[in-house]
Amino acid sequence: MPGHSVDLAGRVALVTGGARGIGLGVAEALGRAGAAVAIASRTKRDLDSAVGHLDAGTNVSAHVCDVADEADVSELIRGVVELHGRLDILVCSHGVYPGVRELTEITAEEFDDTIAVNLRGSFLAARAAVQRMIAQGDGGRVVLISSMNALQSQVGAADYDASKAGMHGLMRAMAVELAPRRITVNAIAPGWIRTEMSAPELEQLRDRVLNPSRRVGAPADIARASLWLVDPANQYVTGTTVVVDGGQTAMLPTPWSEGAEVLIS
Q: Quick one: which of 73, 80, 81, 147 is 20 to 30 A from 158 by CA?
C-alpha cells in the first residue's frame, strides 16, 4: 500500500531468538513501529546485550527460555502477559544450524536436537501464544522464520532441511485452523543473511553467494517482511511463505552462473 506505514501502538510482540541476528533485527523493527517487544533467548548475556542495542524508549523485556522445553515456554508466555498485559504477535526466529555433515554421520541424537529446537520449539511457542490470542478474542499474528532450506535441499544438512520443511507444514496447518479466529500464520524463508550463525560459511565462500542480486542479505531485509505480515491492516494473507533470498530459489543454477563454481565444483 503506497505511503502506508505500519502502526503497532498498543500491541505486544514476542520474538523468540530475539537476542541476535534476524530475531534482533525483527525486534528492533517491531519496537520502532510502536509495539511493546519481548525477546527470548537461552542465553542471558545475549539478552542483556540485545536490550542495550534496542532503541532508547522502546518498551522491551527480556526472557530466558529454552523453546524446546514445554515448561519453559509456558512460563515465557505467562511472564510476557503478566508484564505487558496481552500478546498480539509472535515471531519465531529461534533456530540452530549444526553445520555440514554427511547423512551417515548425523546421529539420531543430533537429528532429534535440531528438530527439538527448530520444529518442536516453534510448535510449543505458537501453541502457547495462540492460546492467549484466542482468549483475548481479537485476533493475532504468527510468523515463523524458516529458511530457503525448507524449499531446497542443501547437501550435508538433512536434519536442518527437515526441521525447516516441517515448519512450513506446521504453518499451513495452523493457518487453516486459526483463520476463523482472525489469527494469521505465515512463514518467511530467508536466503543468505549475514548473522553470527551464517558468518563461518560466508567467510568460506568469500561472500560469493549464488543469487541474482549478487549480495548477502541483512536482518533488516527479513524485518521488513515481518512488519508487512504482522501489520493489523494485513488481514487476508495467511498460510503462505514469503521468500526473501535475493532471487536464489527462483534461479536455475547453471555452470555459467556467476559464483556457481563456489557451490557446485
A: 73
